[in-house]
Specification:
Elements: E1 2-6, E2 12-16, E3 36-37, H1 39-50, E4 61-66, E5 73-78, H2 88-102, E6 106-107
Parallel strand pairs: 3-6
Antiparallel strand pairs: 1-2, 4-5
Helix pairs in contact: 1-2
Length: about 110
């Protein structure tokens, strides 16, 4: 996963996600809290982002599910109604989007 950090002074730094997890590199501060979103809000964000890509078929959806760590979450892809096709490319696309957003948002406890 690649991205950019944008600092308050306008500087940017290219980064890869694994740089945050390797010893001796940048580290994520676990004491910082992430904004909390409901499962429906996260679902809408993932679907809205995924729908901008050509691999996302009309009617495709995702279901947000909580993971073991409080606040952590993932998505399961839901094919369009009446479809018997797995849409592997769309499912992988949704998983990548969910991974990125899970770094930004926590799932609200239910």
């Amino acid at each position: 996963m690649k991205g950019h950090l944008v600092f308050e002074n306008g500087e940017q730094a290219a980064l890869k996600y694994h740089w945050f997890t390797m010893p001796g590199h940048w580290q994520l501060d676990p004491s910082l809290t992430r904004p909390i979103k409901s499962a429906e809000e996260l679902r809408a964000i993932v679907v809205q982002t995924a729908a901008q890509h050509p691999v996302w078929p009309v009617g495709m959806n995702v279901a947000v599910r909580a993971k073991e760590r409080p606040g952590s979450w993932d998505v399961d892809s839901v094919p369009p109604p009446g479809s018997h096709i797995a849409y592997a490319d769309a499912a992988k696309h949704a998983a990548n989007i969910a991974f990125a957003y899970s770094c930004l948002f926590d799932l609200a406890a239910t």
